[in-house]
Design brief:
single chain, 410 residues, alpha/beta, Arc Repressor Mutant, subunit A, Nucleotidyltransferase, domain 5, five-stranded mixed sheet, 13 helices, 15 strands, 42% helix, binds zinc ion, ROK family transcriptional regulator, WH_DNA-bd_sf, ROK
């Protein structure tokens, strides 16, 4: 019997070949051997397994380089599917996607605000079943479920207010284990900002040579960096903590131990706290001010800002300037071509955030003299994290290397 390690190596090798086929569009066995460094005999065996599994197809013949014309291979996009779910405060967004990153079906259900983990785990199997039935895809083509949620892999928790409005941590591992048991599908929780970056790559049709940053605003700020066709993961998959960039080193203390982090100066909870300090604003905007209600209060402030309420505009623009200040530093450090703002936090007043970010970057980012850059509000603020989670689920279950360039296709 092969050892666990050799099984992992076999799986990685197969995943590498699949990655190369995905990124190559159409590719021959000889080209696969050249690009992978594997022998032609190994390539033949792996390709046969992938063909037998229906994951790839033979599509025709390439140009001859002297001998017989080579058979070309491509991924059979409709052969496998995965579901991604983004756990938003005001809605849970589901996406069912195929191997090529195309969305086959979507579903939106109640958000997780004031929900207990037990309630979520009770309703998710039924919601997944509804999505899968509506999509019409064969159940045996599903390889797994990816869940995009705030939190970090290192900690394995999702910070939340529960139904009693007490602060709790949901355990990633518990969600993975219980949902896998109740659905029979492989389940993996991923950081929502990383998922959003991958999803944006797919929905935007970006090229593999682009370098861009995706800022995700849900209950807090996060970001994902896509560089050269891959998502940057750092040493321990805990990248993207833009919320803990120092904006004011002498500012208020942050739970992370720092002072004046973007999070404590500009996150939705802080915007609400600032609003409640202004005489009469709570009543005028109808803010609840209840613990755990800051999300709906933030959306009310954002809506008032979009309607031109001067005090609400000041609050949102202040938050946007803090974000833009962080982005000037990141742009200078990373030489970015594009910044995309996504996530439900930009749903209502995203245009204000995008305008302020653009203005501040155009005035202060050093790269303005080197090349053009773009600040854009995502067209898929709800769906990008869910689509990214589905893509990651497909990739993990089919054994692709986590650091492969081809994770995102080309
Ligand atoms: Zn901090």
């Amino acid at each position: 019997m092969p050892s666990a390690n050799s099984l992992i190596r076999m799986r990685d090798t197969s995943g590498l070949v699949l990655d190369l086929i995905r990124s190559g569009g159409e590719i021959s066995r000889v080209e696969l051997a050249g690009q992978s460094g594997l022998t032609e005999a190994s390539i033949s065996r792996i390709v046969r397994e992938l063909l037998d599994g229906g994951v790839i197809l033979e599509t025709g013949f390439g140009l001859s380089t002297g001998g017989k014309r080579p058979t070309l291979l491509k991924v059979n996009n409709r052969s496998r599917h995965a579901v991604g779910a983004f756990l938003g405060e005001s809605a849970v967004h589901y996406v069912l996607a195929d191997l090529g990153g195309s969305v086959v079906a979507t579903l939106e259900t109640a958000g997780v605000a004031h929900s207990s983990l037990q309630d979520l785990l009770r309703r998710m199997p039924a919601e997944l079943d509804k999505l899968i039935r509506a999509s019409g895809v064969p159940v045996d083509s599903l390889v797994g479920v990816g869940i995009a949620a705030p939190g970090r892999r290192e900690l394995g928790t999702i910070p939340r207010y529960d139904e009693l409005r007490d602060f709790v941590d949901w355990d990633w591992r518990q969600i993975e284990a219980e949902l896998a048991a109740s659905t029979g599908l492989a389940v993996a929780v991923e950081n929502d900002s990383t998922c959003a970056a991958i999803g944006e790559y797919w929905v935007s049709g970006a090229s593999a040579t682009e370098h861009f940053l995706v800022v995700n605003l849900s209950i807090g700020f996060g970001c994902g960096l896509v560089t050269g066709g891959d998502v940057y993961r750092g040493a321990s998959s805990n990248v993207g903590e833009i919320g803990h960039m120092t904006i004011d080193w002498d500012g208020p203390q942050c739970p992370c131990g720092g002072h004046g982090c973007l999070e404590v100066l500009a996150a939705p909870a802080r915007v609400v706290a600032q609003a409640l300090e202004i005489d009469g604003l709570q009543g005028r905007l109808g803010l609840s001010a209840e613990k755990g209600d800051h999300w709906s209060d933030f959306e009310r402030i954002a809506a008032a800002a979009m309607n031109g309420d001067a005090q609400a505009v000041d609050l949102v623009e202040h938050s946007a300037r803090a974000l833009a200040t962080a982005l000037v530093s990141l742009t200078n450090v990373l030489d970015l071509q594009r910044i995309v703002l996504t996530g439900p936090g930009f749903d209502v007043a995203g245009e204000i955030y995008a305008r302020i970010t653009r203005e501040v970057l155009e005035a202060r980012a050093l790269i303005r003299n080197a090349h053009t850059f773009e600040v854009r509000l995502s067209a898929s603020r709800h769906g990008s994290a869910a689509l990214g989670a589905a893509t990651l689920a497909i990739h993990q279950q089919l054994g692709g290397s986590r650091r492969s360039r081809a994770l995102l296709g080309t």
